[in-house]
Amino acid sequence: MTPPRASRGDPDPAARPRVDLHFLRRFLKIQSILFPSFSSQNALMFLTLLCVTLLEQLVIYQVGLIPSQYYGVLGNKDLDGFKTLTCLALVLIVVNSTLKSFDQFICNLLYVNWRKNLTEHLHCLYFRGRIYYTLNVIRDDIDNPDQRISQDVERFCRQLSTMASKLIISPFTISYYTYQCFQRFKHVQLRVNAEPAAFYSWHQYIR
Q: By the 8 A CB rule, do 114 and 34 touch?
């Protein structure tokens, strides 16, 4: 006994989205549409977004160092140093706010261009060889293809633009803190094994 066929608009349980090799191939195919070449406008904006995000992280790191400097200035009761550090903190806050605004502006520009490129590409496929007739009349497993082109593309590009700045900075952040943790681990090893290291160095000096 064969199972009943899903009616129009009902999701097929066997066709649920999964993160697999097929998904990766589709995602890379979409990226080739969003970034047609290395010299395209989207690629240049993405590179600009990378530079802005790295500069923003550098400013945030400098802001994080200010509290420790404040303790030293207050401990020494240095009024001039306090004024200088306060001005520096205000400048860094303004710069950080400006970079964050510029970051969001570039992400919104990427969203508009990505949506335009992807929608035009899907429209070209939709009207090629009367595919629009096949999808709307003959096929029962795809509902409202015109609505999917307009709404699904908008949601996909919106989510991708929101994640863009976080995704591109993640490898650099992970690499930096991995290096810092490795340095910290080596320092701890040296502190724990200070006596054997000192004897070993002394033995080499005698030779």
A: yes
Q: Using CA atoms, how far apart are residues 39 and 118, in angstroms rounded to an integer?
A: 18
Residue corresponding to tokens 């650099």:
172
Q: Report the C-alpha gap between 79 and 109 in whole angstroms.
A: 45
130 vs 101: CA distance, rounded Å: 44
Residue whose entry in the numeric block shows the structure tokens 């989205």: 17
Beta-carbon contacts of 97 under 8 Å, excluding residues fewer than 6 positions away, are: none
Residue 155 Cα distances to 114, 119, 158, 179, angstroms: 11, 12, 5, 37
Q: How much is the pLDDT for 4?
A: 42
CA distance 120 to 153: 11
How far apart, in whole angstroms, are the C-alpha atoms of residue 97 and residue 101? 6
Q: What is the predicted pLDDT for the residue at 5?
A: 43
- How does pLDDT run across 159-176, given as a tens digit for each residue? 999 888 888 888 888 888
- CA separation for the pair 5, 143 (Å, rounded): 15
- pLDDT of 133: 82
Residue with token string 């969203």: 111
> Is 47 within 8 Å of 163 (Cβ atoms)?
no
